[in-house]
Amino acid sequence: MSRVLIRGGRVLDPSTNRDETADLLIEDGLVAAIGASLSSADAEVVDASGRWVAPGFVDVHVHLRAPGQEYKEDLASGGRAAVAGGYTALCCMANTEPVNDDPSVTQFILDRAEKESPARIFPIAAATRGLKGEVMTEMAALKDAGAVAFSDDGATIMDAAVMRHVLEYSTLVSAPVVVHAEDCGLRAGGVMNEGVMSTRLGLPGNPVESEEIHVARDIRLARLTGARLHIGHVSAGGSVELIRRAKEEGLAVTAEVTPHHLSLTDEATQNFDTNTKMAPPLRTQKDVDILRRALVEGVIDCIATDHAPHADYEKAVEFSAAPFGVIGLETAFAIASDLYRTGEITPLQLMERMSTAPARIFELVGGGFEVGQQADVVILDPDQKWSYDAADGFSKSRNSPWSGLELTGRIEATFVQGRLVYQAEKGVVTQ
Amino acid sequence: MIGQDLLGIEDLQRDQIELILETAETMQEIASRDVKKVPTLRGRTVVNLFFEPSTRTQTSFEIAGKRLAADVVNFSISSSSLSKSESLLDTAKTLDAMDPDVVIVRHRVAGVPRKIADILDAPVINAGDGAHEHPSQALLDMLTVYQEKGRIEGLSVAIVGDIAHSRVARSNIYGFTKLGAEVRIAGPPTLIPPGIEQLGVKSYVSLREALDGVDVVMALRIQNERLTGAFIPSVREYSAIYGIDRATLRFAKPDAIVMHPGPVNRGVELSHELTDDRPSVILDQVRNGVALRMALLYLIAGRTSSPGQESGS
Predict the structure, then answer these.
(1) What are phi and psi of B239, to 5 degrees?
(2) Residues A9 and A22: beta-carbon distance below 8 Å
């Protein structure tokens, strides 16, 4: 029997509301005990004093690019970037080549992930074939193959009748439908938030209303169908009120926010840096303030990175021609934990938003330290400063707006099913 | 001194703008000589890197460079296909390897001159990037107004037309407000960009109100093909409401001047007669453009020599 004893850390388990200094004992990959002064003669001991010990993070929105775009990322590099960021489980979007709209692709991703990724991978399948927004996918077969949710993500389903049927049909398999909420007509050619910054820079703007209108539409469709609707990467403050009301009404609506939308504004685009170009775009400080409060209050349920790797040469082009998206797995905790350092969120709440809540919404293993559960664990120091250079990261891509900066909040070790898969001092321990 | 690159008026201080205008005035004398050439930039290479065709601006920079005895090379590349845009980086690096002394960049996408400036050792002058900035145009406009009115501080300038898509409007807003003028903008609501008043201008829908008592009326070109349908119902309706003729000009000061960055759609932005005759100063703008661009090339590429002295002796 293999035993690991994580000793003396601040154990934060939102699933049981535990926040205390304790030891965590792992036996054969499962949580065996949590308590004061546990002893285990033959256990490998990890000193976690002065550190947080929390359930491994769960990211319900990443792009791992495999199959088909392995020059940007693959399941091995994405999985390594994940565990380096404290993530033990990822849900990967369907916009691969071929699109994950067929059980064979879902199965391929799971097979490769099993072999290559130190983090658990849970595919999100396309909601419509080829992400075309026309014909819905075989959701039951996809779910049987291992898909945990359905989404056309950035290929937003603009036809409300198609979306209605997708939502209706999804209740058959009881899986969340994830929406990238943007009215493509209103967005037009917008490449950044519409406002004084887009006016100053002379770049086409994308108004907050393009998101809010779509959020409102899909909430109405969720009411019509009774489906589980998960709203991806909320960027506009105005969306929060719509989500709040949907929840008050008792609809099965959940939402996520990215670290970049919690921390950056359209001012970051000042120098036309294409690593500040993402969809939805960075908004204003007013939006950031509302999103932060919504996350603290739980109106927005969880943090997801929308990790979107692109090759350097793809980003090194005219701003309007560059692809949307930034990587985020390795920096998510450092950026999000600013909320803790400013006193806006408690440690337990922060861990809930990064682990317990996303695991619950997507019905994934993890998110807590129940005895007998798989031991997915992160050990971190929320106050430690470190230098981030995307070129030294584990992702294959480097498109981060934070590269070259000193960040605060560092992941020290990550365990997946009780096995040490990442140690900051040594880099990734292979799975 | 002005900086290494000239990417926009937003980056300039008032005294830098004034230095450029003063230098341009000294350059104007050269155009009046029989031999319109001084050896100031002899042996320097000026590259016109134009990703978007622009006969006027390119020619103006070319003549400016040649009057200063620089070797001017035109490097025109079609950027019509954005899918091939990774070549932007390669183009810049290729050019850099040829050791130019100044590179003039025109591109239809905002921010490209800055991206190229980040790559090149040579200084970069923005000759217009998307709807962002067109600093040399604004500077020649300021020079023209200064020479007409003897000052800029305290004047009222109305910019009329497609503000949303206009780099000329943005650069002029920054420039004229920095020099102490009041700037008003006017145009159909679809062509007024959000937050524009935060740049220090007052925005009008009514042309009459915008022109009320102004010293300078600047009309912007309406890009018919891009705007009709989506932003304005028709050129006819635009012209009926925002076209400037002698009748609408009566709302402005009696000695108000009329400007246009060209080329004018006659009978659309300006009436036919206003295009050609006083108080229109459109050809002065063009003339001043050469002197102004000479000043920019001199200030940016010719720091070690002074203008005009050798041939003037």
Answers:
(1) -65, -35
(2) yes
Q: What is the ipTM of this complex?
A: 0.90
Label residue A430 by pLDDT band (50, 70, 90): low
CATH fold of B9-132+288-309 reads Rossmann fold (3.40.50)
Q: Can you give the residue range of the structural domain that contains A81?
A: 56-361
Check: CB of residue B61 under 8 Å from CB of residue B72: yes
What tokens appear for A203 in the block? Answer: 């770049």
| A169-178 residue pLDDT tens | 999 999 999 9
- Is residue A111 annotated as a catalytic residue, yes or no? no
Q: Cα separations (Å) of B105 from A313, B109, B136?
A: 21, 11, 11
Record the pTM: 0.94
Structure tokens at B139: 């500077």
User: Could you give the strand order of the β-sheet that contains B124-129, starting from the edge strand earlier in sequence?
Assistant: B71-76, B45-50, B102-107, B124-129
Confidence class of residue B79 from pLDDT cuts 50, 70 and 90? low
CB-neighbour burial class of residue A104 (10 A; exposed 0-12, middle 13-18, buried 19+): exposed
CA distances from A7 to A22, A33, A265, A410 (A): 7, 12, 40, 18
Residue where a domain stops, chosen among A302, A328, A361: A361
Question: Residue B99: which residues within 8 A CB-CB, separation 6 or more?
Answer: B45, B121, B122
Put simply, whether B82 touches A (Cβ < 8 Å) is yes
d(CA A243, CA A249): 10
Are the Cβ atoms of A200 and B10 closer than 8 angstroms? yes
Does residue A329 sit in the same domain as residue A422? no
Share of chain B above pLDDT 70, in %: 93
- Going by the DSSP 8-state scheme, the letter that residue A15 receives in this structure is T
Query: What does CATH list as the number for B135-285?
Result: 3.40.50.1370
Residue A210 touches partner B, C-beta closer than 8 Å: no
Among residues A343, A359, A260, the alpha carbon closest in space to that of A302 is found at A359
- Answer yes or no: do B115 and A199 touch at CB < 8 A: no
For residue A57, give the 3-state DSSP assignment: strand
Whether A296 contacts chain B with CB within 8 A: no
Q: Are A334 and A409 in contact (CB under 8 A)?
A: yes
Residue whose tokens read 């035993």:
A3
Average pLDDT over residues B246-258: 97
B20: which residues sit within 8 A by CB, 6+ positions away? B2, B139, B292, B295, B296, B299
d(CA B299, CA A36): 73
Instruction: Look at the block and give the residue holding tokens 């004061």.
Output: A36
User: Of the candidates B82, B86, B196, which has its C-beta nearest A199's C-beta?
Assistant: B196
Nearest alpha-carbon partner for A237 in A187, A276, A185, A293: A293
For B55, counting Cβ atoms within 10 Å of its Cβ (0-12 exposed, 13-18 middle, 19+ buried), the class is: exposed
